[in-house]
């Protein structure tokens, strides 16, 4: 079974971006993928502050990403950018960690005015790390109800996410990593 690693860039365990990531994980789990959830919270502040790229937690995350068939990265929007803790983690990973892998970037923000954070903040970093980037999705916080199931309350946003998931799966299949029966 193929693996998709989902990385949360949220420092808060009960965030809207975390809820979106969990929702996507359930969608993928129903399509015969092994879904591995990871979070920036798995890395100690000392490792990030000191830039210890040889720390066991960084090595573990790197190995997991290297084995992945696809990657989804979600970050809340902070100051019209990705979270600093996510950027610090990405800085410690090998430069080409996403080479040959489809990467789906998703950002969750409080206003329509910050939708360009996806294109001007997160995607350039992932591209530099050799990811084969999908278009990505910007999700407005107001459409995420943490107590609802499903949590995303806007049909257009759900359709955009489903379309991007389909593209991620198609990309993996095109590269011969998943059988058509998956």
Automatic annotation (TrEMBL):
NADPH-dependent FMN reductase-like domain residues are 3-140
Q: Which residues form a coiled coil?
A: none
Organism this protein belongs to? Sporolactobacillus putidus
Q: Name one GO molecular function term.
A: FMN reductase [NAD(P)H] activity
**Keyword annotations of the record:** Flavoprotein, FMN, Oxidoreductase
Out of the domains of life, which is the source?
A: Bacteria
Entry protein name: NAD(P)H-dependent FMN reductase
What InterPro entries is this protein classified in? Flavoprotein-like_sf, FMN_Rdtase-like_dom, NAD(P)H-dep_FMN_reductase, NADPH-dep_FMN_reduc_SsuE
> Carries keyword Oxidoreductase?
yes
């Amino acid at each position: 079974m193929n693996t998709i690693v989902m990385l949360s860039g949220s420092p808060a365990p009960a965030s809207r971006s975390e809820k979106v990531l969990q929702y996507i994980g359930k969608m993928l789990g129903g399509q015969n993928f092994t879904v591995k959830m990871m979070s920036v919270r798995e890395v100690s502040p000392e490792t990030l502050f000191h830039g210890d790229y040889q720390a066991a937690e960084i090595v573990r995350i790197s190995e997991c990403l290297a084995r992945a068939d696809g990657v989804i990265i979600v970050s809340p929007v902070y100051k019209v950018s990705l979270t600093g803790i996510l950027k610090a983690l990405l800085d410690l990973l090998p430069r080409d960690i996403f080479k040959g892998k489809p990467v789906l970037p998703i950002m969750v923000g409080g206003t329509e005015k910050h939708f360009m954070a996806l294109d001007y903040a997160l995607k350039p970093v992932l591209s530099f790390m050799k990811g084969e980037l999908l278009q990505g999705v910007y999700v407005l916080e107001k459409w995420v109800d943490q107590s609802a199931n499903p949590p995303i309350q806007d049909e257009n946003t759900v359709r955009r996410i489903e379309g991007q998931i389909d593209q991620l799966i198609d990309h993996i299949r095109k590269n011969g990593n998943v059988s058509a029966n998956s």
